[in-house]
Amino acid sequence: MTIRSGTVYPFAALCGQERMKLALLLTAIDPMIGGVLIRGEKGTAKSTAARGLAALLPPLAEGKAAPFVDLPLGATEDRVIGSIDLEAALAEGRASFQPGLLARADQGILYIDELNLLDDHLVEAILDAAASGVNRVEREGRSLTHLARFTLIGTMNPEEGDLRPQLLDRFGLAVAVSGEGDPVTRVALMRACESFERDRDAFAGVWAEAQAALAGRIVHARNALPHIALSRPMQGFIAEICRRNHVAGHRADLAIARAARAHAAWDGRDTVTAEDVTEVAPFALLHRMRGATPDMSPPPPPPPPNQSPESDQPDEDGGEVGSTLSPPPLAEPTGDSARGGAEDKDEVQAIGAAFTPRPLGPTPRDSVLRTGSGRRARSLSASRQGRMVSSTPRRERDDIAFDATLRAAAPYQLSRRAEGPGLAIRIRPEDIREKRRERRVGSFLLFVVDGSGSMGAHRRMVETKAAILSLLLDAYQKRDQVAMVVFRGTGAETVLPPTGSVERAARLLADLPVGGRTPLSAGLVEAARLLDRVERRDPATRPLVLILTDGRANAGLGGGPPHEEALRLAAALGHRFAAARFIVIDTEPPGLIRLDLAGRLAAALAAPCLRTEDLRAEDLVHFAKEFQS
């Protein structure tokens, strides 16, 4: 679609949100920055700003306005990337290319609202085109390359789920927005919106001069951009900022360098200064620090010429800019709580050092059709989204497999042409084949954690928390749903209902106390209740349940000796949820005498059992990978 200046809210009239407007202008000046991701709550002018920016872009060579393409969430891969024109093939007997949305967005803006809800493989294809300026199409044995030079703008509400870190990193810039806190600004916003709705053309006329000034400034900055110098000290300054903020890889460095050049061009300078760098650096750092918010205070000044930019200079407060992914370690317990073993005392133990686990392997594809998104397991798609893996004569979604349809019709073309004049290719209903598509979906991980007093002995909860945190980080990357049940004292509780917010789970884990008796039976019953709710909501789900306990059940539900009662419930749990995979993590400390109660629990569940002294990242993830398949 093409945006006319009088039909959208003028960019120059936007009230507040100065950081968002600056990030958008920088990407308009240099589309090779890699796009901007706007993250924030609803009603913060994200869409309004994106549409308003399109009206500022210089017209195309033909005099047409720069295109603004709004990519719908339900768009298929063929619609986005391009495909063979089926109508031309059937009507004229020739194979021709039907451009997709990436081709339509060339030299304009590609806008994606609620980007986090779009399938990952589509996001990857769009980001590839945005970074290279070229779209490559492989369809039905034919290849095509066309220009796709567009400014990419994506918006999302983090409350509805996040993007994988790999995809976040591909965006050049990101900005977080929220509602304006200044009452004066909020009043001005209301009055401006009322004027716009009352007479859009008149409102646009009032702001026409300011709009023209912005558009001219963008053109001037674009023309000046190739001549902007970035000195070696400024390059060292950028490298030091990225190092201090612990970003992975070098995309942040490159994004800051490009954005700083664009900022200098926007301000009419021919050389990048420290002010340019400090102004744009937060845009490149925000989304590259998983689970943490980068320090938005001004970074340190660039090093003097006689000082190496790689030297480690502390901040004013003695720390470093930014933070790490892992939650900060809690203070070590002292006094009585440090001794452990007292079941009537609660204590909070720190999280041990998190490790990088090997990815939980993909579950082999089965015949169940699934919806949703994620990165854990391959599944046949129940919609028209995903990659084609085969074809079928079953007509379900009118998702035509062009090549398979032609192959089915090919043996009959001679006999059908003998019937009389007609189309070059004659297709009958029985020839039609539909695509069977494959997509990746997330999994559901349920942690059932023993929080009794015995877990406080020998710092067992420290290493148990480290193992849980490491799997949570892997679940974050795979976009899994996670939940947590904790049993301690006299009962069990779902402390974390099913959620995609792994950061929330990590915060809860940091504050998880230990103390009291071990009601293992109550934990198994609560896990069964939660699994039942998950199964009723999505019958196709395949949960992975990790039970972390030493098995010392000493508080039952009244069905006999607590441990024997727990074994009966475990056997019933494994039988009831046959589609689930169970793993028991034995937290009993090493020693000459071992009760192996957790091993008996695992046997009742028909599940593997690991001991904590053997619990390395490779061991735990290996078992999770093996028993999810």
Automatic annotation (TrEMBL):
Source organism of this protein record: Magnetospirillum molischianum DSM 120
Indicate the segments forming the VWFA domain, all copies.
444-585
Recorded protein name is VWFA domain-containing protein
Q: Which GO terms describe its molecular function?
A: ATP binding; ATP hydrolysis activity
Q: Which SUPFAM superfamilies match?
A: P-loop containing nucleoside triphosphate hydrolases (SSF52540), vWA-like (SSF53300)
Report residue spans for region: Disordered: 290-395
Instruction: Report biased composition (Pro residues) as residue ranges.
Output: 296-307
